[in-house]
Specification:
Strand content: under 5%
Structural class: mainly alpha
Oligomer: single chain
Shape: elongated
Largest sheet: none
Number of helices: 10
Length: 190
Amino acid sequence: MSVLRSLLTAGVLASGLLWAMATSATPKMAEDAAKDGRWLVTQQRSPDAACLDCHKPDKEGMHGTHAEVINPNNNLPVTCTNCHGKPGPDHREGVKDVMRFNNPMYTVEQQNSVCLSCHLPEQLQKAFWPHDVHVTKVACASCHDLHPQQDTMKVLTDKGRVKICVDCHSDQRDNPNFNPAAVNVLKEQP
């Protein structure tokens, strides 16, 4: 009988100890659970790990302006999936699952809505007046490189900017198939 009592006592003590350790090991989770009445689950893997398996930052130039930047609206780091979305199982076959900038598959509004989730229109207008005119008509990626070490537009001279305006508006006037969602003025620059 004393062996049974000892085992029972040991079991009660062990379960109490485990309960105390679980509560003290995660005070933040316990606080959150008390507030919401449910547990907070945090993601263990980076949702961008799959992107980096194929798209290599050191080879493809995914750095510069958008690397290690913080979204001013939510104070979280900008990641691949913030701008491009999460790829589906058929991603490699070219399905419409993630945002591809300067791709006519996506409208100007769809492409620019991603940019405008961080870049506020008032700030863009103050930075350079053509943003007001073009934000609904031309994709942001038509003029801006998204992953280079230096965005070409930020180092362009005034004369270079005027040349881009003239070239693009000439193309628009002369080409009946002109598609502002697929314009890429930067590829034409020396």
